[in-house]
Amino acid sequence: MDTLEQQTNLPQSRDLRYDGSRKERSTDGITKYGERRNDNTQHIIRRLEPNITKHKPNRRHTNKKSKSQARQDKWRHHKSCLSLKDKYRAFHRGSKKFLKKITPSHKDLARPQANHTMQDNSHYFDSISPTISANRLNLATDQESREMRHMLDLLDDGGVGYMPEKKQNGWIRLMFENWNSLGIYSQSWKIDRLNFLIKHLSIDIVAGCECQTDWSFVNPDNQFHSLLSPGQAKKGVAAHNTTIKIQRDQMGGTAITGVGRICDVITDVGQDSIGLGRWSWITLHDGNTTTRIISAYLPRKPNKQAKGRTVWEQHSRYFEAKGDMRYPSSIFISDLLCVISKWKTDGDHIILSIDANQDMCTRGCSHRNSNVIPST
After folding, report:
1. CA dihedral 292, 296, 298, 303 (to 10 degrees)
2. Most CB atoms within 10 A, among 35, 92, 173, 281?
C-alpha cells in the first residue's frame, strides 16, 4: 500500500470518539493550553501564572469613597492638586514681591506734609503733566495732603486694620478671631494657619470663639493645647457646653491661651461657671497689677431652618429647664456684667474679646460698663 492510499484510509476527526482520557487539543475557543472544563458548572478555570494577580473591582471612584476621601482630605497629594498648589505658591510669592515694592514707607507717607508731591519721585511719570493746570495740581496736592494727614493720625493713634510684622520689646500681642470651626476631626488647614500667624506675628495670647468641638470626644494628642504652637509653653483653657452631648462637632465654644514667655505671669485660668462655654478667661498678674482677659461668644437668634443644634437653642433648652424664659442673649449680657463687676471690685483690669453679633458701640455690655476695654 503506497503513501497516498495510507493517507486516504486514515479516519476523519469527526469519526473519533472521546474515550474519557485527557487530551490537549485545540478547539474553537472552548479550551486552551493549561485549561480544563468543568462539566457541572460549565465555567473555564485558567491556571494563572505566578506573576499575574487577579483583577479587583475598582471602588476608588464610587460616591461613598469620594465623600470619605473628601472628608479626610486625601486628595491634597494628588498630582493635579500639587501642580495647582505650585501655581498658587508662585502667584503668592509674586504678589508679595509686588506689594512690597508698592508699599509706602513712613517717610513716603510723611512727604506730603512737607508740600511735596508724587512728581518729586524719580519713578513717577505722567504723560499729560504739561497739560495740567496749576489750579488742578494744587487741588490734587491739597487732597493728597489731607488723606495722608488722616492716615498719619490713624497710625499715631494705633492704626485701624494694620499690624506691623515686627514687635517691639515690651509689647504683648493679643489675637482674637471667630474660627467658625477649627476642623479638629477633618484635619483642617486652620490649625496650620493659626500656628503660622502665631510665629509670624509673635502672638502672645490667642483667643477665639466657635471652636465647634466637644473636647470630651477628642483624644489627648489632638486637644487644643497640643495642636497649638507645638514645642512652646502654653497655659489656657478651651471651653464647650458640658451640660449636654449633642455631637462631636458641637457648635459654639470659646478658648484662650497664652503662648511662650507670657505663661510666666498667667496665674489663673477659668471658664463659664455653669458649663455652657459662653466665655473663658486667663489672669495675668505682675507686681501689683492684675489683668483679666476674657474670650466670649454672644449667640444670635437662629432662623427657622435651624435643627436644634445652634448655640442659641442649646442655651434656650438649658435655661428653660431652669425656669428662665428670657432670651439667651439677655441672660448672657446680665451674667457677664455681673462677673465683670465682681472682678472690677477686686481691682482687676478687664480686656473683653467678644464676638457679640451686634454693634458694640450702641448695644451690648460695653455701653453699660465704660471701664471695660472691648476687643471685637
Report:
1. 180
2. 281
- The pTM assigned to this predicted structure is 0.58
Domain boundaries, the chain: 105-160, 174-375
Among 235, 229, 225, 171, smallest CA distance to 200 is for: 229
Question: How many contiguous H segments (helices) and E segments (strands) does the chain have?
Answer: 9, 11
- Measured CA distances, 58 to 61, 62, 65, 72 (Å): 7, 9, 11, 20
Phi-psi region of 71 (alpha: psi -120 to 50; beta: other; left: phi over 0): alpha
By three-state DSSP, how is residue 216 classified? helix
* CB distance 259 to 198 below 8 Å: yes
Distances (CA, A) of 113 to 139, 150, 162, 270, 301: 15, 11, 21, 50, 49
**Angstrom distance (rounded) from CA 175 to CA 159:** 15
Q: Say if CB 353 and CB 340 are below 8 A apart.
A: no
CA 350 from centroid of its chain's CA atoms: 29
Among 3.60.10.10, 3.40.50.720, 3.40.50.1000, 3.40.50.150, name the CATH number for the domain at 174-375: 3.60.10.10
DSSP for 27-42 reads -SSS--TTEEE-TTT-
The pLDDT tens digits for 296-327 are 999 999 988 888 889 999 999 999 999 999 99
Read off the C-alpha cell for 293.
482677659
| C-alpha–C-alpha distance, residues 108 and 112, integer Å | 8
Choice between 71 and 268, residue whose per-residue pLDDT is larger: 268
Which residues are CB-contacts of 217 (< 8 A; sequence separation ≥ 6)?
248
Longest CA span, the chain: 134
State the alpha helices, DSSP H only, in 111-163: 134-156
Q: Which of 344, 336, 346, 333 is nearest to 371 (CA)?
A: 344
The answer to whether the beta carbons of residues 353 and 281 sit under 8 Å apart is no
